[in-house]
Amino acid sequence: MSNPAKLKIADVKEICVIDDDSIALYLAEKIFEYELPDIPFKGFDNVNTSLTYLSDNPHTKRLILVDLNMPIRDGWNFLENYNFNADKDLIFILSSSENIADKNKAKSFTQVTGYIEKPITIERVIEIRNQY
């Protein structure tokens, strides 16, 4: 995406996934627990709750995956309202959309490290772990 990640996965202290799909959240939690068992996992089913939690805990280094298509406030809204810091965040879009317009829009956000098509897989988590 636009900004090369400064934070390394080895420095991540928390994994946060924001997705209104409870099955996708459960799957992500199990995959991350398996592949990165030493990093605590937090799942959020909406942007409001995630933004409150993240702003209340601003100094934690995180891997954040955010779904684009959610009711009320979507992933774009999250990106527009999250207080991003490249030294403490790796942010990935997590979406079932293969829409090229979404991928191009994601590239316009400097805080976005990458774009992952759903569903999250063990292979994709291994790729993130090895690449970052």
Q: How is this structure best described in words?
A:
It is built from 5 helices and 5 strands, in the order βαβαβαβαβα. By secondary structure, it is α/β, with parallel strands linked by helices. Strands 2-1-3-4-5 form a 5-stranded parallel beta sheet, sandwiched between helices. Helix 1 (22-35) links the parallel strand 1 (14-18) and strand 2. The longest helix is centred in the first third of the chain and has 14 residues, at 22-35. It is globular, with a radius of gyration of 13 Å.
**Shape, please?**
globular
Order of helices and strands: EHEHEHEHEH
Radius of gyration: 13 Å
Number of extended strands: 5
What would you say the CATH architecture is?
A: 3-Layer(aba) Sandwich
CATH superfamily: Response regulator
How are strands sequenced across the largest beta sheet? 2-1-3-4-5
Structural class: alpha/beta
So what's the CATH class? Alpha Beta
Mean pLDDT comes to: 92
Write the topology of this structure.
Layout: E1 14-18, H1 22-35, E2 41-44, H2 47-56, E3 62-67, H3 75-81, E4 89-95, H4 100-107, E5 112-117, H5 122-131
Parallel strand pairs: 1-2, 1-3, 3-4, 4-5
Give a brief outline of the structure.
The protein has five helices and five strands; from the N terminus they run βαβαβαβαβα. The chain is of the alpha/beta class. It has a single domain, classed as Response regulator (Rossmann fold, 3-Layer(aba) Sandwich), CATH 3.40.50.2300.
